[in-house]
Amino acid sequence: MIQGPAWIRGDARRLRQLWNNLIDNTCAYTAPPGRLRVCRTCRDREVRVTWEDSAPGVPEAELPRLTERLYRVEGSRSRASGGSGLGLSIATALARAHGARMEASPSSLSGLCWTLTFPAIENHPPREDAA
């Protein structure tokens, strides 16, 4: 297991968009006061980010469809005003563009858990702007 910084190759603007889509989804579909836990682990040349929110959750049968374009879960995580059904589809495309997998599962906080697994950069060279 790697301690300290973990490096992945990516476009900072697109990765920010990925994180923003996940936070927007958490804010829209988590009951107040809500909780979010984000953890990073490194193992076997992979950087794994787990993004877990609190209730309500998503029925397990719906999990594989969450990243389908325009798909919306009816029921506990839907809002009357609703979203476009594009955010998680875009997030998945952004993850794939960075060589990552993005998988949904039930959260230990009773909501939704996203696991993003990125290829790690080994022997990362120092940044040019680092002093």
Automatic annotation (TrEMBL):
Residues 1-122 form the Histidine kinase domain. It is a multi-pass membrane protein. One of its GO terms (biological process) is phosphorelay signal transduction system. GO terms for cellular component: plasma membrane. Its main location: membrane. Its EC number is 2.7.13.3. It holds the Pfam family HATPase_c. It catalyses: ATP + protein L-histidine = ADP + protein N-phospho-L-histidine. It is found in: Membrane. One of its GO terms (molecular function) is protein histidine kinase activity. It is an enzyme of class 2 (transferase). Keywords: Kinase, Membrane, Phosphoprotein, Transferase, Transmembrane, Transmembrane helix, Two-component regulatory system. This is histidine kinase. It comes from Halomonas ventosae.
